[in-house]
Every structure is written in C-alpha cells, then in structure tokens.
Amino acid sequence: MIPKPAASGQTMIEFKDVHKWYGDYHALRGISATIRAGEFFSLLGPSGCGKTTLLRTIAGFEGISEGVVLIDGKDATDIPPNKRPTNMVFQSYAIFPHLTVAQNVGFGLRKQRLAKADLDARVAEALEMVGLKGYGARAAHALSGGQRQRVALARALILKPKVLLLDEPLSALDKKMREQMQVELIKLQRQVGITFILVTHDQEEALVMSDRIAVMFEGEIAQLSDAETLYRRPNSRRVADFIGTMNFLPAEVISETAGSIEVEAQGFGRIHVDPKQAASEAPGKSASIGFRPETLTILHEGQQATDREVGAVIEEVVYYGDMTYYDVKIDGTQKMVRLSMRNVFGRPVLDRGARTRIAWSPGALVLFR
Amino acid sequence: MKRSARGAGTEASSGLLLVSPPAIYALVLLAAPLATIILYSFFTDGYLEVIREFTLANYWETWVNPLYRTVMLRSLLVSVLVTAATVLLAFPVAYFVSFHVDPSRKSLWLFLITIPFWTSYLIRVFLWKVILGYNGVVNSGLLSLGIIDEPLTFLLYNTNSVVITLAHAYAPFAILPIFVALEKIDRSLLEAGQDLGETKFATFCRVTLPLAMPGVVASVLIVFIPTIGDYVTPQLVGGPEGRMVANLIQLQYLRLDNYPLGSAIAVSAMGIVAIISLIFLGLTRRYLRAPK
Amino acid sequence: MKGGWFKLYALAYLVFLYAPIVLLPMFAFNDATVIAFPLNGFTTKWFSEMWVAPGLWPALKNSMIIAISTAVIATALGIFAARASTRYKFPGKAGIMGLIMLPLVLPEIIVAVSLLVVLLGIGVPLSIFTVILGHVLMTTPFTIAILSSAFQSLDRSLEEAAYDLGETPVSAFRLVILPLVMPGIISSLLISFTISLDEFIIAFFLGGTQVTLPVYIFSQFRFPQSVPVIMALGTILVALSILLLSIAEYFRRRGIAKSGGKDTGGFL
C-alpha cells in the first residue's frame, strides 16, 4: 500500500452560505463547508439533492445565487471554468469521439505549447498512470466503459489540477468493474495527493472511498463527517436511514444529566445512553432508539451473552450466502427489526418461527430525539 | 431577496443573441412581407398602383364572384382529396418499413422513398403528363392489352390528374412522420395487447393506431397545407378545369397587376387552411397528448 | 406469410414513386420529338443538342450562383438557430423558432408574392439576389432540421469538458463542436443546394429577367420540339441529385456514427 500523505489540514475549497436558485426552485440552501487539501471528499445523497449542482459550482459550470465559493483561498465567482485549478471527470466521461486516446489525454495541454516530444512524454506518463499504456493511438469511440473512464481520469490529471472533481464516475460500470475502480481510485488519489471530490448516490461507494462525506438532502448538508462517524453516529433518522440499514424502536427520554441520558426504550427497558450516542433532531419529535443490523447478535443454543440479552421470535429469514438476514420481533415490541448474522461454517441457519435470544449492549444503541 | 443568479440570465441572453440572425432574417423577409400582403388585401386597386384606401371589396370579390369562388373551392377539394389519398396510401408503407423491415435496412428503405422527392419537381410533373396523356403510358398500355378501344380522356387536364400528381409529389412527406410515430411505439405494448386477449387486428386498432395518430396528424397537415398553394401541377396537368388558387394568385400579380385582389385571394387561402388545420387539430387533440 | 402483402404493397408503391423517374431516361434516349409511346429507337442527339441549346447555360449559371449562395447562407443561419434551440433556453423560444420554421408549411406561392410585394414596394430590382433572399428563407428550416439533429446528438458535457480543460467558448466550439457537427453541416449544404437548384415558384416570381434552370425548363415545356432536350437535361439533373443525396446521406450517417449515436433514419 502506498502510504497516504495525510490531508494537510489546509483548506482547499470553502463554501460560505452558498445558495442557488433555478427560477423559483431553491437547489442549494445555504451550504457552508470546507474541503481540505489532499483529502478524498464525497458528496452523497439521493438524486435531486443538489450534490451535482454543488460540484458544478466548484468547476464553474453553475453560477451561484448567493454566497461565496473559495478555491485555494481565492473567490472563484468570476473565474470561468477554463481558468480554474480544477478538472472534472464527467458522468458520461465526455471523451471527444473524434479524437484518439492520446489526443483526448493531451487536449488540455494545447495552451502550454509543448514540444511534440514533451507532449508525447506527458501523455504516455498519464496513460501509464491509469493503466492504459500503449493505448494512445486507439480511436476514442472504440473504448469500453472502463477504458473511457481511465482516459477521462488521465485527461484531467495530466493538467495537475489542485482539485479533481468526479461526477458519479462509476455509475455506468457493472458491479465487478465498479468495485475494482473504487480501489484503483483510492490508490490513484494517494499517489497523486490531489484533493478528490466525488459525487455519488451510492452510500457504500462513499463509505469505501472517502476520508470525509457530506450527506445532502434537498439542497442542504445534513451531516458532514468521516465514514465511521457517519455510520455509527448518524445525526438524524434520515441520514441513518440513507446510510445502510438502521432499525428504529420507540423510546422515551426519562431524565438527562451531563454524562448520561436515561431512556425507556421499547423492548430494551430502561437504559442509559452516552450523550455522544444521541442525535438531536427537530424538537418536539418523538424519540427513537436506533441500531444497525449487525450490532446485535442472535445467540445460538447454549451461548451466553457478554452483556445483556432479550427474547425474540424470528419472523422471516433471508439467506444471502455469506450472510443471513433475520427479521425478528423482540419481546415487548410490535415492530419487526432486521438483524444480520455472518454465516459461520457448522452453525445452522435458524428457522422461521423459532424463539431465540438476542445479545445487546447499550453502547450499540443510538438515541434520536 | 436577490434571486437572480450571478452568471445566469446570461443563458437567456446568449440564446437570444445566437438566434437573432435567423430570427431577424425571418422577421424582415417573412413576417413583414406577410403583414404587408394582409394590409394590401384591404387596399383599393387603382390601375398600375395601389390606393391606400381601406376596403373590403377584394374579399367580396374573392368570396362572391363565382369565378374565384369556384377555384377556391376546387383547391380545397383537391387538397382534401390529395391529403386523404396520400396519407391512406402512405400508412401501409410506413407500417411495413417500421414493423416488417429488418432494422439494418430501414434507412435504405427511407432513402429509396425520399429520393424521388429530391429530383426535379417540374420534370416529374411533366412526366405525369406523359404518363396520363392521350398517347401516354397508361393509355398505350391499356390499348395494347386490348382493355380499351380508344384512349381514355378523363386522365389528363382535370382534377384527377392534379390529385394523382400531387399525391405522388407529397408521398415522402406523408410517410416520414407516420414512420417516426410508429418507430416510437414500444413493441411490448403490442405483445401486451395480444396477451390480454386481442387479435392482431384488434390490437392494431386499439393500440397501434391511436399511438400512431400524432404521426398521422402531422402528415395530414404537412401535406394539406402546402398542396393548396401548389402552382406547377395545376398549371401543367390541370388544364382549364384543374386551375387552383396559386394560378389565380399568379394571374392577379404577374398578369393583371391587381395586388390587392391577389393579396385578398392569398390571405383567404391561408385563412381557410389555418382554420381547417386548427379544426383538425382540435378534433384529434385527444390523441396528441402524448406523454413524453 | 409475415408481412408478405405489405411488402408487395410497398414494392408497388415504390413503382408508383419511381414511375416518372424511370420514364425520364427512356425519352431522353428516344429518337423522336413527340414524348409518347411507342419508343422510336436509341439516340444521344438530345444530349448533344442540349449542349448548344440557347439560354440553357446562362440559366444554369444563374442557378448555380443562387444555389451555392443559398446553401452557404442558409446553413450559416441554420447553425445559429440549431445551436440556439438545442443548447439554450430563452424567452419566446417557441414563437421565434416557429416563425423561422414557418416556410416549411407555408405554400411557396405565398412566400413568393409577399416577398414580391415588399421588394417592389421598397424598390429593390428583381434579380438573382432577390431569388437568393427567397431561397434562403425557404431552405433555412430544412438546414435547421438537419443541424438540430446533429447538435442534439452532441453530449453537452463534451463542451463542458473542453472548458474544463482550459479552452474558451470560442476555441471549444472550434475544437470540439465544429468537427463533430461537420457531417451535419455538409449534409445541410448539400440538401439546401439541391432544394434551391430545383425551386421554381420563387425563382419565377422574384427572378425578374434573370432566368434559373427550373424557370428555363418550365418555359421550354411550351415548345414541344424542345421537350426531348429537357428530358436529356432532366436525366442528368436526376442522376446528379441522386449522387448529391447519396453523399449527403453518407455524411449524415458518418456523423451519427462519429458522435456514437443511433441511426434513426431519414432526412427530415
């Protein structure tokens, strides 16, 4: 593994209260965030949440209605796309169909008026970096999807931009190819040390690749944090629901001190939750306890819980090969919750209708209120 | 609240700037001239000059004088007949190319269908005169086969010959829009129709035809509107009883120098075409609300 | 038999479409002044007579000047309109585009007389120039139809990619858009050239004393003895337009293949 140059902590992109209106449609609603130099940053959200629009404000393809976008400390408002130190990998890759691979990759170097030999060397170097050594003379329209993507990467990186913008670059690829490219992109980012900003609707992709992720809904950033925090301590039910699976059970806050919140949670009884595990949403909403499918364990015959346990009935079994999902009803609750268990060799998959015991600990529970 | 985006709004202005050369051209050389003949149609004709005095006399003449009225009505009749013949004859061809021709050969068929349209219109019309004439192809063919004893005379120099020739001239115009509409039909809809218990023919009537209607409407309009103003065909194959409105307009403008009356005839013809087209669009409106 | 009757019908229809065109060379090579059956033996004399026919060459020259100018001007206007309509949203777009496309459905005689009235009204003498004005008006909608499909099949992000890689809007147009729509431009030039070359009414009304080829042909129909020469001329014209159209079709298809699109067929 190539060691990762730690994100320097310097600010590369800064959004200050950015708004964007399309007529009456409010596409970006006050975005404020900073993206650090050298980090792999993702904008994650469902389609229509404004993530692509936000990316395009960095590239300069979208003007903004209010606020400021700073790129490397400079107000970018009046800088046209061709003068910005950013380059983009488009969702469609936008490979020029009338040019060869080498001409595509060298497209942005035209203005630098390099000698032919220098130009060729730069292009060859860029092609090698993306694993397309020797493809220079190929016609662009004869490339496969994965190859187009590599050409798009080489074409953008050859200009040594300060920021590389990636607009859903993997969405056109099949699953295998996508997983392979995820790893390659991470390696590439470590190698070149440039700030990568990725737009994606695929939460798994964002979790795998990013140093930090901004989850967006309806033109606003709902949560901005590293992948693990996002997964373990989502700051709202909506984020929790969007990232992976989160089970919710009704709960009631009984009392609250600086170090602990006492909660009456359906199925789990009275527990104390660490305030760090508590997400404050809009006041007035009823509270819930949330947990991920893999944080509770279904105990098999004779196994003892390390912390606490509750009884439950298995209502539905969905077998995935390496995993099995169990929809269970915990004693004292009405709502089904989903648990996942890794299938361990030698241990049978449990049957529908079976009674079972579930091990849990308060540390796995997140409070939403 | 300042909503006007910085940088936006340039979109509208660059669009307008870009479209302005052709738009100004059309404004000066199309919209203004059309407005002028509408204006002229209300002026009074003085010998060799136009007197700028408002009158409805030209329209009175156009609509009441049997000479003009007959030609106007005949033009309308010819246009309707041509449109009906062209569209009805064209539909099966469009259907064949869309549904029964291998996709790789479709553009070859379309190319074959469009080629005659691009060859000299005048010469094509003249050749219909040869085909339909007294010593023409049809007559000599029928004579030599012994089907007739003497040449048929109803083929040329009347409304029939005008209809046949125009139906030929506008064939590609009718086929292409229908073809495009048929191509857009999702083939699984037809399978669904049959799957739900309809025969092929019933599926055609209940699924294919309604979905092809936008194309049919387009081809009706694209044939009907220009045919009414055709000049060459009635002039060459129409004879005295095949004269149409364009011949009348030409007569008023170039021979009689009566611009106001010529304009009134032209405006009336345009008006009739516009009204009939709008009525037709209104009647077929329910088929045209095609979901995008 | 799948589509058997339809195929039979379609072939019969093609015969109907091609009937006049097939007759053309028959009479062009027929050794008789009267254009009628039966044919009278083979000759090429009409082609050699065509060579010395009075008035033909000036008419051809006028037609060529008009058709070439029309093709260039109409295609240039078409590029503006097609680019504006496929790339930008602007107020009054439907109305403006509707006006520009109107000649497609307007009877030519209306265009001809309305232009005639205005040109004479403001004292512009009728000439080749006035015919060009009318032909540009008539052919621009066709060029827009062809060019729009060329611009439409262009991925918007190609242009953005060029900006992103440092090009200005002007150089991006030259380096990326123009090469990709070039086949459409060539096809548009050829189609508008062909339409203009064949157009009769506007040339008849607006040409004044300057005669174009179709106007010449029309005048010759009045003299039965010159008709065989016209048949010979027509044969050459038809052969030429089929050639031009094949080239146009070739470029149109290459354009689609180049930009990676799918062939939907047809010129219109």
How does this model look, in words?
The complex is a heterotrimer of chains A (369), B (292) and C (268). Residues 1-5 of chain A have low confidence and may be disordered. Chain A is 21% helix and 35% strand. Chain A folds into 2 domains: 11-232, Rossmann fold (3-Layer(aba) Sandwich); 245-369, Nucleic acid-binding proteins (OB fold (Dihydrolipoamide Acetyltransferase, E2P), Beta Barrel), CATH 2.40.50.140. Chain A has a 6-stranded mixed sheet with strand order 6-7-8-3-9-10, with helices on both faces. In chain A, strands 13-12-11-15-21-14 form a 6-stranded mixed sheet. Chain A is an alpha+beta fold and 369 residues long. Chain B is an all-alpha fold. Chain B has one domain: MetI-like (MetI-like fold), CATH 1.10.3720. Chain B has a two-stranded antiparallel ribbon. Chain B is globular. Chain B starts with 9 loop residues before the first helix and ends with a helix. Chain C has 268 residues and is mainly alpha-helical. Chain C has a domain at 53-211 and 237-258: MetI-like fold (Orthogonal Bundle). Chain C has helices at 4-28, 45-52, 56-87, 93-101, 108-121, 128-152, 156-164, 169-198, 201-206, 213-220, 227-258. The longest helix of chain C has 32 residues, at 56-87. Chain C starts with a helix and ends in a 10-residue tail after the last helix. Classes of the chains: A alpha+beta (369), B mainly alpha (292), C mainly alpha (268). Chains B and C meet through helix 1, helix 3, helix 4, helix 5 and helix 6 of B and helix 1, helix 3, helix 4, helix 5 and helix 6 of C.
